[in-house]
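Hey, sorry to bother you again with one of my protein questions. I've been staring at a protein lately and its backbone has me curious. I owe you a coffee for this, so here goes:
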Amino acid sequence: MRLIAGSAGGIPIKVPKAETRPTTDRTRQAVFSMLGDIVIGARVLDLYAGSGALGLEALSRGAASAVFVEQHREAAAVIRENLSKTRLQGGEVRQADVARALQSLAGMGARFDLIFADPPYTQRPGDADLAAELIEGDEVRALLSAGGNFVVESRMTKGAAASWSGWLVERDREYGSTRILWLTKQGDVESIESGSL
């Protein structure tokens, strides 16, 4: 896996051996093509960061900073290795459960312009849908700055819950079994004109 563009474009990054599901290059390219200049100067939060590919890509493309939240020790170590290898500045790795990290960041008064989340997909009936919980809860919205953006990957069927209270759906696309939702806080900004990725 390599970073696609920016100051560290083309540099290969390490992927943890287990416990993660890296975002494919095709999906990552689509996400960043969609976001465009929004990334430049943004304060980024990368939840369920895995290899850190999304946050690293953002830093490479001009984000001001990125906080990576990853619960698993090996994956957190890999993100630190990737930051060192790419020589990207402004990265901070927090090895923590996402729910606790969100609480801690909110308690510190942290605010982010762009939040990524790529939680584990549900595997069996009865498993918690972590993507839906993040969208429906208040924690992510509370951490977003005015006009902030939330990009979440999930296996939710497209069209299911096509709108959520408090969010504007800017994009809703599927790539294979992955659904990409780009959301903004309702009332912060006017919804941008719909378009394809």
Confidence is low (pLDDT under 50) at residues 188-197.
